[in-house]
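Help wanted!
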Amino acid sequence: MAEFFLELFSEEIPARMQAKGADDLARLFSEAVSALKPRNVASFYGTRRIAISVELDASVPESRISERGPRASAPEQALAGFLRKHGASKEQLTQEGDFWVLDRVVPGASAAELIARAMPGLIRKFPWPKSMRWGSTSPFTWVRPLRRITAILDGDVVNFDLRDGDDAAHGLHSSNISEGHRFLSHGHFAITSVAQWKEELRTRHVIVDAAERRALVETGVNALAAEQGCTIADDPGLLDEVAGLVEWPVCLLGRIDDAYMDLPAEVMQVSMRVNQRYFALRNADGSAAPYFAFAANIAAKDGGAAIIAGNERVLRARFADARHFWDLDRQTPLADRVEALNKITFHAKLGSQGERVRRIEQLAQQIAPLVGAEPDLASRAAYLAKADLTTGMVGEFPELQGVMGGYYARNDGENPAAADAVRDHYLPKGAGDSVPTAPVSIAVALADKLDILAAFFVIGEKPTGSGDPYALRRAALGVIRIVRENELRIGLKDALVNQVSRVRESIAYANLSKEYRDIEEASEKLGRDVPMPARETSRHRAAVYVAQEVMQFLAERLRVQLRTEGARHDVLAAVLAQGIDDDLVRLLARTEAVTALLGTEDGANLLAAAKRAANILRIEEKKDGPHSGTVNPELLMLAEEQSLIQCLDKAEPAVRDALSRENFVLAMTELASLRAPLDDFFANVTVNDEQPDLRHNRLRLLARVRAAMNLAADFSKIDG
Amino acid sequence: MTDPKPPSFQELILRLHNFWAAQGCVILQPYDVEMGAGTFHPATTLRALGPKPWKAAYVQPSRRPSDGRYGENPNRLQHYYQYQVIMKPSPADAQKLLLDSYRAIGLDPLLHDFRFVEDDWESPTLGAWGLGWEVWCDGMEVGQFTYFQQVGGIATVLPSFEMTYGLERLAMYVQNVERVYDLDFNGQGVTYGDVFLRAEREYSAHNFEHANTAMLMQHFADAEGECASLLGHNLALPAYDQCIKASHLFNLLDARGVISVTERAAYIGRVRTLAKSCCEAWLAGESV
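Answered by r_m:
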């Protein structure tokens, strides 16, 4: 067993590329020297280095392989080619059966040889997201100038360089040298082992373990916050990022000038995070505290006083800028900004933000009564919803869209419910976000998302397996969550048909997807034969078609979502097989009822019997089906037949009635009543009787069973 | 701050001149055409191309019409000074030189928190890009460091190191001043505000309110036409002047808010086309 250590030391690596770079190095190295059975691979990274340590075999022993060549009867050229390929002569070959065989000795190799052979290619082809040239005409690229390569095997240097033909690759070659912190340490040091490297670096003010750095930052900023009776606003992404920006984290606390504490808390936090990577602090009551915490990369001679003063000054300047936008933006009412949206392109094929806003307004107004919102308020909120895109603050910090609109709407004296809807209509933006619950907010949030879905489906920009550039999945999931979490009883299809029509009217014909145009044209031809105005009908048909596509997309997202929540995939398939119920709450109730039924003994047995009925039907229908039609009661000779049809006569209407009242639990109970007579039927009745009349009639009886079951769900999709 | 008496604004420039002159740079004077950044100076854009080594440093007045704040913002200006260094090929100790230059103006890296923060530099108008960093001091960007990879759509055969210092910001830092207008300009009582405050007010009004947009559009078209015509005579440098002018005219039109999002991309594309042609003409003239 041998220990190998590799460090690639460069000028500062972008923080977001460090971890991936170290992982890639570990993976590529392990692949390249797999013959040495690499194990216990550890990777390290910091601002100026990526490194790995690996245990591997000290050598690969000599081995023999037999290469089978061409047939002895093959033409000369084939044999010559084989010999050339292996650099062998004919004398070395033996004949086995019909074939020439070459017994080759693969010489053993030491780990050092194999590593030295593999490294130059690996480094030259390293998959940095973006690489660069520097300093000379060398075509060699690295993420930033690569300055040193350290390669140590059990204390000795593994010698190699990066020379490639005419390219000297800056004369880079391996050594046993490394260095510490850019400012806090001086000179180089020689490496003998991984452990010694880590310890030397620690004394030279570099923590190479990213997790340790992250923990140091987390503990550091939390302790500083606690001293002020505050907490750090939760932001794990920021912790990760900061841990990649420093080699020697020293946490410090700065004060926010009182003059800026009246800025919205969101503005302060975003400005601090995006521009400065500062942590925001919160008072015990959750309000913004007048402090910020950050990690410096140096233990300064003065204990950090100059660094704190400098950072406080920078933040004052940042906040002065934010205040400029805050004050300036409030001078123009949001309502006066709406017109400018006509000049902002939403999408080349879908026109301006202004057009989009008009569509959202109409839909929000339509949805409002269905969710208990005042239609005029919903329409007003939708009218204002995107106006903050023209404000300076959102121009500077796009992530504040909506939030700023909410502040500005309140400032303008808009109805508070409308202002909240402006603020919340983008929600939920991600899985961790809450959904809007106020009626006006719900109406606008739904309208916003349904419009996006309708619009991109109309122009044929549907998400693919690999790409979803317009975040339509997120929009669909948003719709689903808003509906589910607020238990909204709302027919999404009507809303979608309307919205698809609105989109269709607001954009040029040429921008419709080809599919859309084809359906319109086909329908238009059909329409000539029907008395309705052809144009209207064809447009409506196409709109219905696209709305259905969107519903399918929503159903698929719902299915995925329910699966992650642990729902049975077969139950979902059974419920969705009937076509999508655009009332998602009803769809969910049905799903739950089917799941519950299958959990009971009656349900499980009923399922087995129903499947048996469906299988028989499938087989017999292939012979001479279909076997639909009315069952002739006079041909029902046996008691079991009679009791089954009696039971069906009772259950069918009861199931229908229960379903129409959306009492899915009752519908399942009624279905379950079929279980006993069906079991008896199969136990005592031969379906495929010799008499064709009887056989047909019994098959029709089974078809009725299947139809009754299908009222609730497609049980053939259920496993088992 | 480490200095007992921090350098005045002009002293700062003189120290940078001395420092980079000692590194073998040609010390140039500002280019006499309005431009948005020191990179537009032909001593950078054009000289970055081709195989001839080159080292230069200069101050360049930079105009960013939309950054005007009528003299009311403590640190945003529509006219400010960039200190620009270009070294081709990039020296192996570029980062060390840079840090030494900060020491020369009184910023001690053992007292301050210096960082190299990822910055993928790109100038769509110049068809140029490079990789490097923003140089941060105590959370403030005090410079931009770039290894040029492409200029005018042409790959650099000998990548340059470009360093740009925002002089006002740096001076505010060194002098511990909160408002740019309070900067000590000459060490003898003249402030930055004495020199520039009125200009900031007047130019902000010009940039945002009064610049004649019809005339600017005409000038843009004129510059574009003149550039093409000069290129027809293989006059790369005069043609490039027209390209810089077009770029600045576009910035003015942008500040006046008369360019829509779609038009914006088209304008940038037009300037880039000029820049590329000028770069090609420059290179062609170099190899004669």
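OP: Thanks! One thing I noticed: Residues 211-286 of chain B form a domain with the Methane Monooxygenase Hydroxylase; Chain G, domain 1 fold (CATH 1.20.58.180).
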